[in-house]
Amino acid sequence: MNTLEAIQSILIEEFKLSPDRLRAEAMLADLGIDSLDLVDLIFKIEDRFGLKITDEVPRSLATLGDVAAYIDELLENQSTGGGTKAGTDRSS
Amino acid sequence: MTTRVAVTGLGVVAPLGNSIDELFASLQAGKSGVRVLPAPCNGPQGSSIGATVETPTCPRIPETRLRMLDRVSYLALVAAIQAVEDSGIDFNQENRERCGVSVGTGMGGAETTDEGYHILYAERSDRIKPFTVIAAMTNAAAAWIGLEYALAGPNLTYSTACSSSAVSVGEAAEKIRTGRADVMIAGGAEAPLTPGVLRAWNAMRTLASADKVDPSTSCRPFSLTRSGLVLGEGAAFLVLESWEHAIQRGGKIHAALSGYGLTTDVAHITRPTVIGQASAMRAALKAAGCSPTAIDYINAHGTATLQNDAVETSAIKEVFGPRAYQIPVSSTKSMHGHLLGAAGALELVICVGCLERGWIPPTMHLDQPDPACDLDYVAGAARGDIPLRIALSNSFAFGGTNAVLAVEKV
């Protein structure tokens, strides 16, 4: 499961959003995901990926694809930074 | 300006049923909604009992919203939607600034608060859910009901412990009576069956001990063997309208909300007083413009605590004199438990339904009368074929807020 698919599954299972709306280019605002939802989504992503996101989530995230790219970047940084557990759950 | 207040809609989500018909079928049969609670509400101190609601479905509430709702708000929304549907009111045809919401709740979003503390102190995590404040805030239920129908008039929440929703209904009626609103969705909700809330009440030594043979009989108002109250969850709502407004739109009128008495005990934070309870009943009679001889039924506060039931009995005698012995008085809490902030609204809904149906629900599990409680408590079985015109609903609270509502048959 790639990052976008994992985010999609969280949105379907936990946010009860309809799968056909969850394209990469779907705007968060159009999906009804506001700033609080985004914090909640990030928590769930942290659980799913074994990540710990300490930085403020950038306000520039507008689409699902943006969120996936942001998470991928964090995973990349954490694995190259070494010593974290980031990414170990990705295949699960 | 004063106007008469009509009750035009009723809705319940209660331990005895998730509709008015179910509720009254259970009351008539003397059913109990009290049961042993599942884990994690049970701990090493023994089994916890409570009166639970079977969580209803409600297609009108989108699934995407559920994450933002504490159980208390969900139950409130479902009951309020039921009441609005029963009233047949179409808010698209209304001036929404003249329509409002009034909710009573003692503990608000207790489940969310409990869960937040669990994350913080038990899991030792700092990841409190981002919706915690929105879900836990005491006025969340009122806000969601107001949003549901885009009602731009008053949106109020009253928290006076066990009389919260009697106050919320009474104050909503005042808004209508004084011309400040045409329509109010008024009621109460409570969802206190969480480990934290149960432990806190248990620590006060006010909860009934579970009957070892049949836990469903553990709540025994006015009985010599009563051992305390049983917490219950649920919500009850009424649609209140000015009489003219209800007539004009052709709404059916269940009853008139004719009296509201509100007084305060000033003696002790928890111990009730005869004088405070009696003065609230007198105030409701005065507001209803009726004499004590006109009352046909009293739905008692009747919590089944040692203190309340004896004091309430004395207060009824104080107000009604020798006639107190002729008035049927019942505590339906023996069946649906104590819904705290939702109790007053639920019991008022029961009074309205009794006026319409012509029978009185029983006080169950009253096998051994307490000599200090010697009124006619309609023990053991519902009583039918009684001409009922006016009923009183008593609600008395920790903190001392006594609220009594009078409803009259139309």
Write the SSE topology:
The complex is a heterodimer of chains A (92) and B (410).
Chain A lengths: L2 H11 L21 H15 L14 H18 L11
Chain B lengths: L4 E9 L6 H10 L4 E3 L12 E3 L19 H17 L11 E6 L5 H13 L9 H5 L3 H10 L5 E4 L5 H14 L5 E8 L4 H9 L30 E9 H6 L6 E10 L9 H15 L8 E3 L6 H15 L8 E2 L2 H4 L6 H15 L32 E7 L4 E8 L2
Parallel strand pairs in B: 4-5, 4-6, 9-10, 9-11
Antiparallel strand pairs in B: 1-7, 1-8, 2-3, 6-7, 8-12, 11-12
Helix pairs in contact in B: 2-5, 6-12, 9-10
Q: How would you characterize the overall build of this protein?
A:
The complex is a heterodimer of chains A (92) and B (410). Chain A has one domain (3-81): ACP-like (Non-ribosomal Peptide Synthetase Peptidyl Carrier Protein, Chain A), CATH 1.10.1200.10. Helix content of chain A is 48%, strand content 0%. Chain A contains 3 helices and no strands. The longest helix of chain A is centred in the last third of the chain and has 18 residues, at 64-81. Chain A is globular. With 410 residues, chain B is α/β, with parallel strands linked by helices. Chain B folds into 2 domains: 5-248, Thiolase/Chalcone synthase (Peroxisomal Thiolase, Chain A, domain 1, 3-Layer(aba) Sandwich), CATH 3.40.47.10; 260-408, Thiolase/Chalcone synthase (Peroxisomal Thiolase, Chain A, domain 1, 3-Layer(aba) Sandwich), CATH 3.40.47. Chain B has 12 helices and 12 strands. The two termini of chain B are 22 Å apart. The mean pLDDT of chain B is 96. Classes of the chains: A mainly alpha (92), B alpha/beta (410). Chains A and B meet through helix 2 of A and loops of B.
